[in-house]
Amino acid sequence: MTETRTPEELPDIDQLYRFGFGSGQVRGVAVSVDRSWSTAGQGHDYPPAVAQLLGECVAAALVMVATLKFEGRLILQFRGEGPISLLVVQARSDLSYRVTAQWSADLDADALDQSIQVLLGQGQMALTIEPADGVRYQSLVPIEGQRIAEALEGYFRQSEQLPTRLELAADAHRAVGLLIQQIPGEGGTPMVRHGAANDEFAHLSILVDTLDTPAGQAELRTTPVPVLLHRLFHQDALGFTDIRPIRFYCGCSRAGVGNMLRSLGRTELEGALSDSEVPDHVSVRCEFCGQRYNFDAVDVEQILLDTSTEPPDATRH
What keyword terms does UniProt attach to this protein (predicted)? Predict the structure, then answer.
């Protein structure tokens, strides 16, 4: 849709914005992830250092999934050998997402703006695209750069071969992402021979570079996205082409967890009953939303004996 309202009048909470410029040679996507990001972290109590890095991954995954013309999901994963060993974001084409992370006691938990080389160390970034219909695609690249945005820009250079500029900022309350990208030419190839397209992308990239400072990062975290985009690009025939809501989701359920437990078999479940952090229960905690599901001995017996009946919808959890 085409928006004619002023930047101050546009929605800002949990929104994705697609925008373009008068030439039609560069496209952009920006996200503001607010209430849903607070919801995503409620069951996990992420330390500030983890929340910052994971929030940047959320913003990155959402702007990237918005550049794909497909129905399905995109999975962004960083796995390293540092104090943060895992960051995972699953973003769907309907702009819903879920997240998980793993970290150790060695983490300097309260320090912000640490290098990903310190937090993640050596490791791999995996980008997986799973269309609802079609072939699953995965790309694995080493973790490079000092920030999540730098690592992903390296991926675009190597794998997509599309000139791309990405800025990310996050804390425990908000995650923001801004991506500009040269539009592919005929046959899906970058317009590398089109001098005007290259010049425009270089010009817009310089404007985005103003966010790549401590003051710029603070502005990115605190300024409503429509206002921020107007400040950056008001002289470049900026126009919004689509505005869509973002939400946190998790598909876990008591029935689904019960089906998973059934696959473990009697011996393992009986062992779990006697060796659980919740006495005399098999206790399972969803790694994405933090919901805990508890099954007592009666529940376990029903799971094992009656495969035609879903686990009871008890309220013990």
Answer: Chaperone, Cytoplasm, Disulfide bond, Redox-active center, Zinc
What's the residue count for the chain? Answer: 317
14: region left, alpha or beta (phi > 0 left; psi from -120 to 50 alpha): left
Residue 154's alpha-carbon distances to 48, 79, 143, in angstroms, are 26, 17, 9
The 3-state DSSP class for residue 18 equals strand
> Mean pLDDT across the stretch 12-39?
92
**Within a domain: residue 288?**
yes
Per the structure, how many domains does the chain have? 2
- 109/173 same-domain check: yes
Residues 110, 116, 120, 125, CA torsion sign: positive
The reported pLDDT for the residue numbered 304 is 84
Strands 96-103 and 247-248, bridge-based pairing: parallel
Q: Is residue 1 part of a domain?
A: no
Whether the CA torsion 214, 124, 285, 256 is positive or negative: it is positive
| 79 lies in the same domain as 169 | yes
Residues 280, 210, single domain; the answer is no
Residue range(s) defining the domain that contains residue 288: 254-305
Residue-level pLDDT at 207: 96
Q: For residue range 103-131, what is the model confidence (pLDDT) as tens digits?
A: 999 999 999 999 999 999 999 999 999 99
Copy the structure tokens of residue 274.
Answer: 């006697």
Question: Which CATH number fits the domain that encloses residue 293?
Answer: 3.90.1280.10
| CATH code assigned at 28 | 3.55.30.10
Question: In a 3-state reduction of DSSP, which class is residue 297?
Answer: helix
Q: Read off the pLDDT of residues 45-93 as tens digits, 9 standing for 90 and up.
A: 899 999 999 999 999 999 999 999 889 999 999 999 999 999 999 999 9
Q: How many Cβ atoms are within 10 Å of 112's Cβ, its own excluded?
A: 13
Sign of CA dihedral 264, 265, 267, 273: positive
* Rounded-to-integer distance, Cα 52 and Cα 275, Å: 35
Token readout for 262 is 């059934």
